[in-house]
Design a protein that fits this description.
- It comes from Bradyrhizobium iriomotense.
- Keywords: Membrane, Transmembrane, Transmembrane helix.
- This is DUF3307 domain-containing protein.
- By secondary structure, the chain is mainly α.
- It has one domain.
- Helix content is 67%, strand content 0%.
- It has seven helices and no strands.
- The protein is globular, with a radius of gyration of 16 Å.
- It starts with a helix and ends with a helix.
Amino acid sequence: MILSTHAVVGGAIASLFPSHPVLVAVAAFASHFAIDAIPHWDYPLRAITFKPGANNRRLLADPRLFFDLALIGFDACAGLLIAIWLFVTPATIGVIVLGALAGMTPDPLQVVYKVLPKQPLTTLQRFHRWTHAKRRLSWPLGISSQALFAASVSWIVLTVG
């Protein structure tokens, strides 16, 4: 899933438990793996790779890294802003941001793992790969299905929660 989807779902989870930030962080973090199991589309990165055996230790020397970081940054900020727009009240801004960030966190941890392959990141990366959908969707179907999924979760939380 793209980071925006994870941020919106994390924000939705946070809006359900605004007085329990530890529960929000754990549930939003766990939601990442649950929704990554759904077949989806991921945008291609030019310099950063998550393939087994890839060496990302020389990333700083790769000029394509700037493009990847800009794309990832835009995606993360867009998701965070959407989560804030949908779920924040004056009393809940901190916990909504926490939920959105926790929902996105497993993906940046993959980059950290590729640069520094140590425990507990090794186990987390193995789990992330295991839960991740093996089937990839084409970008038009993949991005629209993610938008529909995030909209559905948001609608359910906003009407029921």
